[in-house]
Design brief:
By secondary structure, the protein is an alpha+beta fold. It has 7 helices and 4 strands; from the N terminus they run αααααβαβββα. α1 packs antiparallel against α5. It starts with 7 loop residues before the first helix and ends in an 8-residue tail after the last helix.
């Protein structure tokens, strides 16, 4: 419906907001999972949280989800919408994990490299993980390029733990 009315980008932004709220608020998920709570209260909660921040079409959809008793799946529904949006717009989600914060120039180089490889637009999610010591890992479309120092050390440890020397005695 959002596609037909030309509100697909707005609906995507709305579903991202709903998804982030559901990811951050465990209590809200517990309330939505409660089958005893009346639909009216769930609609009131959704209205209080989102009505001023999302488009009318998205709010109507959330009310529809409540009417169909699927609020327990709200996080999954928003995830599915975001994935369908990416697929429809030829966008690939890419995760870049580094030991330190990366600058915009580096992120742009990664976007271009992955875009050239996949022939898709890249939505880059950069994360910092100091446990990897150094290097980076890139994950996209069930592929992973692992150039982390910690994984290289683990490979070396595994290699050196093998006893390749055989005694001739």
């Amino acid at each position: 419906m959002a596609s037909e009315t030309g509100q697909l980008d707005a609906a995507n932004a709305d579903m991202r907001l709903v998804n982030s709220v559901c990811n951050e608020n465990h209590l809200l998920n517990t309330v939505f999972a409660n089958p005893v709570m009346p639909e009216g209260k769930k609609v009131a909660i959704l209205s209080d949280l989102f009505e001023q921040h999302i488009a009318k079409i998205s709010m109507l959809f959330l009310k529809f989800v409540v009417r169909k008793r699927r609020t327990i799946n709200l996080k999954g529904i928003s995830n599915a919408f975001i994935e369908m949006y990416r697929e429809a717009n030829n966008i690939i989600r890419t995760d870049l994990v580094t030991a330190d914060e990366t600058d915009e120039q580096t992120r742009e180089r990664v976007r271009k490299a992955i875009g050239a490889y996949t022939k898709k637009d890249v939505e880059l999610n950069a994360k910092v993980d100091p446990d990897i010591i150094g290097g980076f890992s890139i994950t996209f479309d069930n592929n992973m390029y692992d150039a982390r120092v910690s994984s290289m050390i683990a490979k070396l440890y595994k290699e050196f733990s093998k006893n390749v020397y055989e005694s001739k005695l």
